[in-house]
């Protein structure tokens, strides 16, 4: 059993006019030390699936298990705080906080002493190629690629086992896309994280260890 096990998962959206099965009978084991790409067209169910893995919602049917325990049986707030980090296409940085404060923010939420939180954030930012003189700047003073690195540093500062990324290179040029994909590869292969990214970019998918395709809510592994 992997770090995340998806067991016959379905998710339905309902409104007054229709019911849509956004995720349709998905089964899969996600292992640590592996970079996964979930590819598919817009509306295929990719982002809904990622939200379920993040514990932001629970399946309509089936189970998602973290180390063998169903998310419906655990404190999902604790799961999101301590075990999983999400990186978004638009970075989701706080524009009124500095680069250092953004990277340290998860540790502030955990009531870590500010000096220790800032030191951990500084270490992650430096390891991702940010410079000390940038730490006091606001996010909009950085390039898109630099802002995404701040978002990655924020995701890593808590030591999360699972890194989820929703179109993380969608706003980046080809050079910065390559850098971010290499960062994800390093997180999986050197640090043993389970990294799952949603993308519509074939070049990004090709950098993954395992490529999964989502269509009409169904997930299939690409043949190697």
Kindly, what is the distance between the CA atoms of the first and last residues, rounded to a whole number of angstroms?
21 Å
Please report the number of helical segments.
Answer: 7
What is the strand tally? 10
Mean pLDDT: 92
Residues in helices, as a percent range: 25-40%
* Helix/sheet category: alpha/beta
**What shape does the CA trace take?**
globular
Give the topology string: H per helix, E per strand.
EEEHEEHEHHHEHEHEE
Range of strand content: 25-35%
Query: How many whole angstroms does the radius of gyration measure?
Result: 17 Å
The major beta sheet can be summarized as: 6 strands, mixed
Strand order of the largest sheet: 6-7-8-3-9-10
Contiguous uncertain segments of 5+ residues: none
């Amino acid at each position: 059993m992997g770090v995340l096990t998806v067991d016959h998962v379905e998710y339905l959206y309902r409104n007054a006019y229709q019911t849509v099965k956004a995720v349709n009978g998905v089964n899969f084991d996600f292992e640590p030390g592996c970079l996964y790409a979930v590819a598919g067209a817009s509306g295929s169910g990719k982002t809904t699936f990622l939200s379920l893995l993040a514990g932001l919602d629970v399946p309509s049917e089936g189970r998602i298990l973290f180390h063998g325990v169903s998310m419906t049986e655990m404190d999902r707030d604790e799961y999101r705080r301590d075990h999983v980090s999400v990186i978004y296409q638009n970075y989701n940085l706080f524009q009124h906080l500095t680069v250092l404060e953004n990277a340290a923010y998860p540790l502030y939420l955990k009531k870590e002493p500010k000096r220790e939180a800032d030191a951990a954030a500084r270490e992650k930012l430096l390891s991702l190629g940010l410079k000390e003189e940038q730490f006091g700047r606001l996010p909009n003073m950085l390039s898109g690629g630099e802002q995404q690195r701040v978002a990655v540093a924020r995701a890593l500062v808590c030591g999360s086992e699972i890194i989820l990324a929703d179109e993380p290179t969608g706003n980046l040029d080809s050079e910065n896309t390559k850098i971010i994909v290499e960062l994800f590869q390093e997180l999986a292969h050197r640090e043993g994280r389970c990294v799952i990214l949603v993308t519509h970019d074939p070049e990004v998918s090709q950098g993954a260890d395992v490529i999964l395709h989502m269509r009409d809510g169904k997930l299939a592994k690409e043949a190697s």
